[in-house]
Amino acid sequence: MSKSVLDPLEYYARVGLMTDPKEYGLMFDGLPREIPELCKTVQGVLVHVFWAERQGLKLSEERKQEVNVRSVAEKLHVVKTLDDRPLTVARALEKRLVGNCRDFSVMLCAMLRFQGVPARARCGFGTYFQPGHFEDHWVCEYWKAGEHRWVMVDAQLDAFQREALQIRFDPCDLPKGAFLPSGKAWQLCRGGEANPERFGIFDMHGLWLVLGDFVRDLAALNNVELLPWDSWGFMEKGVDALSTEDTALLDHLATLSLADNSMFDEIRSLYERSAGLRVPKSIKSYTAHGVQTVEIG
């Protein structure tokens, strides 16, 4: 791949494969521009699959499968089918699209990009769900031009969840260390500074999961935000089968993924050149109903 001439902020201000609302873009017209209000809008149309019952909604197995809806355009279709009022109108729980942390983050990212704000979804680990545990999680980053920095936002944390988790920080500007991008988790685990078994969700944990999140984060940094159980490349190869060259590449990209915007060109170039990282046309998706082969794009 030739050297990119794109400005990273221009790149992250444009929609990608998953964040393009397509014919449903009109649904984004008139949305608030303040981050807290945009988060409330996202929370008013989505319900988290793992929090629904605690909030009073018993989901059928059929409804739970809505977490497999990948693109924002497909999500907006379901949202409109459930309730065709403007997105600024908060739905009853049973009228909200069922999703997870990735979906809250990608929806906010799409809304911000529609408004011309540079934004990107990040895959990594939250430190505020269980003490001493790094929870598999996604957040959204947006570029705050006035402060010249990327700001992390957890659009999932509504008032109910903040109270249940005793969150005392601002979810619209996560403090340092609250969320670890998976590149940082990879560094900590590879360097022996953290136990990989503390990284994961439910009974899934270990360096293999950190690797999976890292590959997904690199794809998201290249505007392809796939599902938490989608798999390709290095994930299919497995962490124990990575070559010395593979791990050296990942170690280098971990550093780049945590750096400032000046590393954008190199991240793009290495991603495009690596079959272990680049999202292919066909991937595997490990759903609750078994492994499926899915065409992307």
Short description:
By secondary structure, the protein is an alpha+beta fold.
Features of this protein?
single chain, 297 residues, alpha+beta, 6-stranded mixed sheet, 3-stranded antiparallel sheet, 11 helices, 11 strands
List the helices and strands and how they pair.
Blueprint: H1 8-12, H2 35-45, E1 46-48, H3 61-64, H4 72-82, E2 97-99, H5 101-114, E3 119-126, E4 134-144, E5 149-153, H6 159-164, E6 179-181, H7 182-190, E7 199-201, E8 204-205, H8 207-220, E9 230-231, H9 234-237, H10 244-257, H11 264-273, E10 282-287, E11 290-295
Parallel strand pairs: 1-2, 4-7
Antiparallel strand pairs: 3-4, 3-6, 4-5, 7-8, 9-10, 10-11
Helix pairs in contact: 2-5, 7-8, 7-10, 10-11
Describe the protein.
- This protein has helices spanning 8-12, 35-45, 61-64, 72-82, 101-114, 159-164, 182-190, 207-220, 234-237, 244-257, 264-273; strands at 46-48, 97-99, 119-126, 134-144, 149-153, 179-181, 199-201, 204-205, 230-231, 282-287, 290-295.
- With 297 residues, it is of the alpha+beta class.
- The strands form 3 sheets. Strands 3, 4, 5, 6, 7 and 8 form a 6-stranded mixed sheet that branches.
- Helix 10 (244-257) packs antiparallel against helix 11.
- It is globular.
